[in-house]
Amino acid sequence: MMETRRTLRRLLEGPGAIVVPGAYDSLSAVLVQQAGFEAVYMSGYAVSAALLGMPDLGLLTGSEMVDNSRRMASAIRIPLIVDGDTGYGNALNVRRTVQTYEQAGVAAIQLEDQVTPKRCGHMSGKQVIDRAEMVGKIRAAVEARRDPDLMIVGRTDAASIEGTNAAIIRAKAYADAGADILFVEAPDDVREIEVIAAGLNSAAPLVYKVPEGRPAPPLSFGDLADLGFSIILMPIGTLLAATAGMQRSLRELSTNNSPVDPEIPSLTFGKFNDLMGLPTMQELEKRYAD
């Protein structure tokens, strides 16, 4: 786990930006790794859907999220960035949240300045706590970690509530409090993205979240890297793709009494076992038996 944390720091110190897909369980995290990505993100939105079958309205508990992250981190060798929501309470709760996530083996923890319970950053009705309170929570997070390579992501949802300039001021304050990475949530257009990048790219590595499933500003990954973003986050694409695939398969089964949609190449049982590393486990089983 310490090596994955150092890996993430090295990646962010290098040129350009890394594309970080989201995942919601060990299988989706393994698939992200197998596709060749250098890091993976545990999305609270996706985990809420996968574990609870419910929307991202702060319904998941901290212990549920940490347990999920522990399983995901143990299944992969690339850095895992996790959505720590609001830290599940005040600054003292943040301390324990960071400690338990660190024990779970994650490489970075995202903390946001919404009130509790939070909601998805692209949903209406968001509220944010006072800037000073969030600064205290960031300080608590930094002091709570034992491994200095564990990174703290300071996220603000203030842009749509208090305005872009206020969000930039908040993010700078979070960097001053020790946040290693900054994340201004849900900019609406190219101009706002440019203003955020210009205002913050000298303060800390920046996150841009692609609004998957919604209209996105016309910026390529290269454009975002040129603006100064270090992490291009794709948090729910795997969830949307998996859900659409299951819907098509189940619709085919329901309407045609056939388990295979002829337009979608199916994954055989054997190929799936290979993906999960069954041959390696069988070799180990044989070696230990011998």
How many individual β-strands? 8
Strand/helix succession:
HEHEHHEHEHEHHEHEHEHHH
Any low-confidence stretches, pLDDT <50, length ≥5?
none
CATH superfamily: Phosphoenolpyruvate-binding domains
Compute the average pLDDT: 91
Tell me what portion of residues adopts beta-strand conformation.
5-15%
Number of helices: 13
Largest sheet: 8 strands, parallel, barrel
- What's the architecture in CATH terms? Alpha-Beta Barrel
The CATH class name reads Alpha Beta
CATH domain fold name: TIM Barrel
CA-based gyration radius: 20 Å
Overall SS class: alpha/beta
Strand order of the largest sheet: 1-2-3-4-5-6-7-8
What is the helical fraction, as a range of percent?
40-55%
Shape: globular
List the domain count as a whole number. Answer: 1
- The rounded distance between the terminal residues' Cα atoms is 32 Å
Explained architecture:
This protein has 290 residues and is an alpha/beta fold. It has one domain (2-242): TIM Barrel. The protein is 50% helix and 13% strand. The protein has helices at residues 2-13, 26-34, 44-52, 62-75, 91-104, 131-144, 159-162, 164-176, 190-200, 221-227, 237-256, 269-275, 278-289; strands at residues 18-23, 40-42, 80-83, 108-112, 151-156, 181-184, 206-209, 229-234. Strands 1-2-3-4-5-6-7-8 form an eight-stranded parallel barrel, surrounded by nine helices. α5 packs parallel to α6 (131-144). The chain is globular and about 60 Å long.
